[in-house]
Amino acid sequence: MTFLWPGILILLGLVPLLIALYIWALRRRRPGLRYSSLSLVRVAIPRYSRIRRHLPFAIFLLAITSLVVAMSRPVQIVAVPTGQATIILALDVSQSMRQTDIDPSRIEAAQAAALSFIRSQKPNTQIGIVAFAGYAELIQPPTTDRGSLENAVLSLTTARGTAIGSGILKSLDAIAEIDPNVAPSVTDPSSEDQPTPVPKGDFAPDIVVLLTDGVATTGPAPLDTAQQAADRGVRVYTIGFGTENGQDGFFGGPNPFGGQDPFGGQNPFGGGGQDPFGGGGQQFGGGQGQPGGGGPGFGRFRRGIDEDTLKQIAAMTDAKYYSASSAGELENVFQSLPTYLITKHEVMEISVIFAAAGALLVAIAIAFALRWNPLPL
Fold first, then answer.
1. Within a domain: residue 377?
2. Which of 12, 88, 244, 264 has its CA 20 to 30 A from that of 335?
3. Which domain holds residue 88?
4. Does residue 9 sit in the same domain as residue 157?
């Protein structure tokens, strides 16, 4: 339970003050009669009369506490079933995905796993496809049309660069298009246009599944974009895909494509047209480099994957990181994603419960006081 106005809780400091005033008032009203034996007086006064004397005040204190809590506007995060879930598959289509350390290649294994995942989902589950290399593009808006989704996955081709952050932002925008409760992304994290973060534990009925085999080389910093997802209650499940054997061909070894451009100027996202990176394109190991640093530095990462960043993205959004080094493992990862547990988390204000309880306790305290300690006529 959290509070929308937690500052009001400072009024609970009145409770010990009222107790002190009550004790002081009782001592001032103590009669000054003399008795030969104090023990005889204690025996003569029934125990239940002492309880009756102080019980109304104790109930009144509980009423004050309940009313103060109500004034602070307590809220409870509740999970309710959602009739329609949205899943965005954000797939890395960078040049390294053409490596064949995973048979028949990383990109083909990823496509096969994505197709199997799509076919296993419930008919009312909306799925969207985002592809990212040097930039990100929404290939297929969220839909329940399995045919369109399969065509989108099969049309993927590779290109230079790895913009993990751009993939996250494009996924958030795809969700915002169909869910009015999710704000679109912003390009400047320091701007004043940021939406108010959702309460902790409040999640949208939408998730992002991000698969990559490398490290960010361009685009916005992945952790900054993960914070935007966390502020919107969108969970980002991350998958690191690849083997250590696949590093040599792209990370310091010879070009496995014989020095030729393996992309032929194609749009890496399944369409025709020119190379989106300007002809020669951005090199996978050079260009802008990793955001915040001077180049990707793949030698520092096991299997060429920045697993620490992927784990942080998942942790920041209350999701999970998965690792896969074979086609079979990737299939298992996709099938183990908690899509069947997707629920909509809503914020429910429960002030009325505490207000009603406080009013009832006040009435009970007054009733007991009038019954056991009636006012003199």
1. no
2. 244
3. 83-341
4. no
